Amino acid sequence: MGPNDTTDIESLQKGDARRGRGLDFCLVLSVIVLFTGLVALAVAGVLVIHDLQSQLQHKRVQSVPPVPEAAHVVVDAPGKSLKMQSVYLGATSYELNNKTMTLDPQSERPLGSNFEFNPVRHTLSVKHGTYFLYMEVNVTCLSRCQSGVFTIRVSDKLSCEMKLPNSTDSQPIQRKCWTVTSLSKKTELLAQMTLPHGPLPHWRLELRGSGFGLFLVS
Fold first, then answer.
1. Pick from 32, 80, 94, 118: most CB atoms within 10 A?
2. Dist. CA 185–CA 188, nearest whole Å
3. What's the order of all strands across the beta sheet hosting 148-154?
4. What is the C-alpha to C-alpha distance for residues 95 and 203, in angstroms, rounded to an integer?
5. Are 96 and 198 in contact (CB under 8 A)?
């Protein structure tokens, strides 16, 4: 091999090295450009989404109709309407016995105009409609109390049975019953107490939390 051959080989090696460095530079430059493009695209996407959200929020605010000033003068209308369409009758006797319950409209829950109460017969007349009828019973043991059961029926519309255990505890025992029922204009509601197994000595019906009520649904 002559001297010229050695020179050619060295020239080729230097040329390959320069081309390799050029390829590396182009590759790095391409990666930088690609990364910059992705970052710019992501930023643009975020700005577009934020702009759309702002527009949608602005449209929601515009779509809400303004509240007329006149509406402020009828704030108490729902309360008045509810009073006219609801009533609660509370027990007035502590006695548990086979009898018609003595009831009285509660002063804190005024008698609605849809109802008429007869204080002599303790009956409640209602206007035609569908009503939510509910009852609450609250009893207390005064001493050594035997187990037993009694039932309170509001005409044939609602029945609430109370099962009492043997007890010496003075903590009250409570029960709530309810139903949704249709009542005609001539309906008279009467609460009847029944003790199928005889008296329940030392048990007392608490006046607070005992009675029945109803309100107009439709």
1. 94
2. 9
3. 99-100, 191-194, 148-154, 158-164
4. 8
5. no
HSE-CB at 188 with a 13 A cutoff on CA atoms is: 8
57 and 98 fall within a common domain: no
Q: Are residues 184 and 108 in the same domain?
A: yes
Nearest alpha carbon to residue 210 among 89, 83, 121:
89
Q: Which two tokens stand for residue 67?
A: 């509240």
Ordered DSSP codes for 116-127: EEETTTTEEEE-
Q: Is residue 70 part of a domain?
A: no
Mean pLDDT estimate for the chain = 74
CA distances, 164 to each of 21, 24, 36, 142 (Å):
97, 93, 80, 13
Q: What is the three-class DSSP state of 163?
A: strand
Report the pLDDT value the prediction gives residue 46, as an integer from 0 to 100: 42
pLDDT at 168: 85
Write out pLDDT tens, residues 3-42: 545 445 555 455 555 555 555 566 656 656 565 555 455 4
Half-sphere exposure of 91 (CA within 13 A, CB side): 25
